[in-house]
Design a protein that fits this description.
Length: 428
């Protein structure tokens, strides 16, 4: 038995499923999760000292690689001043100024402790601002685990939402309308019927929780127009895409201005941080300025602000995102070539520093139905073979991959060599 397997057994004694977030459990992969001891740059090192080239990056934040000396240095510098005061601190203003400078659609911003808090608060705000209850989301988009957002599609575009999890009251879920991602016609039809009741649309502008699905041309533009027409709030969930798809996130990349933006991951430099912000007029509804209540004991933690500011400062360097996208391009085109040579049906999709690998004969994947129609068994074999080769991919066919600036040309070449052997195993 490996040390990781032993640790997993021990973890299962007192932690549900042995993990503090479900995807870490490697469920359905027929092997225990790898327990990581430390990480440096592009590499994870497990408890037995085995090294992995990492394309998960703590699910997004580690865009300059693990244990970035500047991020760690900033945290160390703050540490001796104390962890948390429950008072305003100047470093929170530095963070707010930085976010508003990088994302011009954000005029006021509130820091929170996770992406879930950011999206949960943003929809409360959209509801409070408009005085309407219904929210539109898209099938396969993940916005964290708050009740209103943990809802999947019913059958047909306009059916009321059904909870994705026991414990989400049906009476709340019915205010969440789930439509097919990338389907503007469905959005138009829904608003034609219910527009005056819809507080807002929340969307992952590049979906990263059903693999990687960029928007079809016109989709985000269409959402903007529909929201304008009906006085609904357009919320971009940029928890994953923010500072990754481009410095200014997907909104900069695709040139669409949302009313509210949710941030997480990179904004905290690897610490538990989220943020939501946007138009002044809407954000002024938040307490203590307005009546929509939102709060947090540890929100704006100085230590977390220090980590986030250090990381945002690095990703602002000119050329950072072009170089990141180039690495993604090299990896993805290399994977496609090698798969083709091995006779494996595989495509990749990318947006800036994120990418997805789909085992499918389709030429593109634009929504949840297409994503779930891909060959899950092929993914499992590929994932396992890559892990044995020392390459750590997301342990699910429905997660995007993340590149960092610490990945060298040699790391990418080693990944492609490993993939060649994995494809050979798969082709057997
Ligand atoms: N929104 C998106 C797009 C995400 O990818 C995630 C998490 O992966 C969340 C929200 C929730 O963030 P958190 O896990 O920090 O609560």
């Amino acid at each position: 038995m490996t040390t990781s397997a032993q640790l997993f057994e021990q973890a299962c004694r007192h932690i549900p499923g042995g993990v503090n977030s479900p995807v870490r459990a490697f469920k359905g992969l027929e092997r225990p999760p790898v327990f990581i001891e430390r990480a440096q740059g592009a590499y994870l090192f497990d408890v037995e000292g085995q090294r992995y080239i990492d394309y998960v990056g703590s699910w997004g934040p580690m865009i300059t690689g693990h244990a970035d000396p500047e991020v760690l240095g900033a945290v160390r510098e703050r540490l001796d001043l104390g962890l948390s005061f429950g008072t305003p601190t100047a470093i929170e203003t530095t963070m707010a100024d930085l976010i508003c400078e990088i994302l011009p659609s954000i005029e006021l911003v509130r820091m929170v402790n996770s992406g879930t808090e950011a999206t949960m608060s943003a929809i409360r705000l959209a509801r409070g601002y408009t005085g309407r209850d219904k929210i539109v989301k898209f099938e396969g988009d993940y916005h964290g685990h708050s009740d209103s957002l943990l809802v999947k599609a019913g059958s047909g575009a306009l059916t009321h939402g059904e909870p994705s999890s026991p414990g989400v009251p049906a009476s709340l879920a019915e205010h969440t309308i789930t439509l097919p991602h990338n389907d503007l016609d469905a959005v138009e039809r829904c608003f034609a019927e219910l527009g005056e009741q819809i507080a807002g649309i929340i969307v992952e502008p590049v979906a990263g929780n059903m693999n990687c699905i960029p928007p079809l041309p016109g989709f985000l533009e269409g959402l903007r127009k529909v929201c304008d027409r009906h006085g609904s709030v357009l919320i971009f969930d940029e928890v994953m895409t923010g500072f990754r798809v481009a410095l200014g996130g997907a909104q900069a990349h695709y040139g669409i201005t949302p009313d509210l933006t949710c941030l997480g991951k990179i904004v905290g430099g690897g610490m538990p941080v989220g943020a939501f912000g946007g138009k002044r007029e809407i954000m002024e509804q938040i307490s203590p300025l307005g009546p929509v209540y939102q709060a947090g004991t540890l929100s704006g933690s100085p230590l977390a602000m220090a980590a986030g500011i250090a990381l945002l400062t690095k990703v602002r360097e000119p050329g950072f995102h072009d170089a990141l996208a180039q690495r993604v391009e090299t990896l993805c085109s290399g994977l496609e070539e090698r798969a083709k040579a091995a006779g494996i049906e595989l495509i990749t999709q990318r947006a800036g520093g994120m990418f997805g690998v789909f085992f499918t004969g389709q030429s593109r994947v634009d929504n949840f139905a297409q994503a779930t129609a891909c060959d899950a068994a092929a993914f499992r074999t590929f994932f396992s073979a890559m892990l044995d080769e020392g390459v750590y991919l997301a342990p699910s066919a429905y997660e995007a991959g993340f590149m960092s600036s610490a990945h060298t040309a040699e790391d990418i070449q080693a990944t492609l060599d490993a993939a060649e052997r994995a494809f050979a195993r798969l082709a057997q």
